[in-house]
Amino acid sequence: MSYPGYPPQAGGYPNQPGGYPPQAEGYPAAGGYPPAAGGYPPAAGGYPPAAGGYPPAAGGYPPAAGGYPPAAGGYPPAAGGYPPAAGGFPPQAGGYPAPAGGYPAPAGGFPPQAGGYPQQPGAEGYPSMPPAGGGWGAAPGGYGAPGGAPQGYPSGPAPGQPMPNYPAAPGANPSMPAYGGGVPSDPQAPAIPRGFRGTIQDFPGADPLRDVEVLRKAMKGFGTDENAIIELLGNRSNKQRVPMVAAYKTTYGKDLIRDLKSELTGNFENLVLAMLMSPSHFDAYEMREAIKGAGTDEACLIEILSSRSNAEIIAINRIYKEEFGKSLEDAISSDTSGHFRRLMISLCQGNRDERETVDIAMAKQDAQKLYAAGENKVGTDESQFNAILCARSKPHLRAVFQEYQQMCGRDIEKSICREMSGNVESGMVAVVKCIKNTPGYFAERLHKAMQGAGTKDRTLIRIMVSRSEVDMLDIRQEYVRCYGKSLYNHISGDTSGDYKKLLLKLCGGND
């Protein structure tokens, strides 16, 4: 019979009503089955005639007394059965239990009869070979000895060759499950995925139209149910939160942001509004706040531009121009100066090499250029640092930093601190730290925001919101490693009220 999904192969049993079709490799000797129309001719040395048994094959199995009797828990060893051989199928505890009465016969297949071998279900319920040694072993490419080991049957095929007259199974896929208990079908261990490292994930079955009903109910009437807002926003990913703004206006004809502003206050309000923006909108808004007014929050500019990908920086540029009517580059240029301005403008191009490959020879050259531009000359050539730190890929720069350390015996950060000062020093050091260890860089930023008198809440909110779906788990690990205290506990001790509750939702747990 044919099996769905299995290609027909020479030597298999073609589908023919009434039993086994004639084959070229017949069984021409006395002692086998009597010749019958459409069946197998008698073969020497085959099985003695028995009702319902499997027909013998040339070089096949030695006779077994009575076949395998069905027994709960698997096929017990029977006298005269398959002798074990080194390298055969590995034993599997229990094997496949034989149901009473055998398995139902497929159309045109092999009906169970007394004295025969009870049929065993294969993939999709089709009959397959009875197990040897108590269980099946999975082998590459189908049914055979695992790893090309010698077959455990006398006069069997050569090692590594498929069993005669049985079609080889395709590799396992969802519709054709493999048999367990044997060696892996893939000899190479699969790569372990790094996995999701954020703390906020998509909530199953979230619907913005139902979610805005919760927000409306929380704000309607006297007072505000802040806990309902915290539970809702703290359990929705950014792509599930952002559509709430449009859904609220669609449902109630009112502006969600305006209603929240009228109901909430302080840092809790700022945090809730930040969570309802897309990442690129939030970054553009933060950069606008860092640039406008008296003074510039250089650390905010450095943090965003040094940690975002090319695509994210390009999106920030686009949104900044749309929202504020001025390009981000012009805004930075008019609010900064000197080498720091050049560093920020270089970073805001979003044109860093993002290849993962590293050329060690080029890394050595770049390390030599940095050494020649700083430690090995009078004065400092900031332009050379700018060119390398802003254009090279992050994997390449990590190799450059290692080469630099080996070359001059000093860490690149310490060299920058010795050679530069002011904002350009802060900017260069931040770029190096972010490239070396991004979670460690953000852990340091969070610690500085909460350490000492007062809290830099804008920095705290920005990092907690922007990294909650990226690498917050890694930031928490770095925080404990560097400061001996969990981020969760530090936030708990440095903030209060509803603001603290929502921040701790973003943190995700204690370490």
TrEMBL record:
Pfam families: Annexin. Gene3D superfamilies: Annexin (1.10.220.10). Residues 1-35, 140-171 are annotated as: Disordered. GO terms for biological process: cytokinetic process; phagocytosis. GO terms for cellular component: cytoplasm; nucleus; plasma membrane; vesicle membrane. Residues 140-150 have a biased composition (Gly residues). InterPro entries: Annexin, Annexin_repeat, Annexin_repeat_CS, Annexin_sf. One of its GO terms (molecular function) is phosphatidylserine binding. Keywords: Annexin, Calcium, Calcium/phospholipid-binding, Repeat. SMART domains: ANX. Residues 156-167 have a biased composition (Pro residues). PANTHER family: ANNEXIN. A pair of annexin repeats may form one binding site for calcium and phospholipid. Belongs to the annexin family. This is Annexin. It comes from Salarias fasciatus.
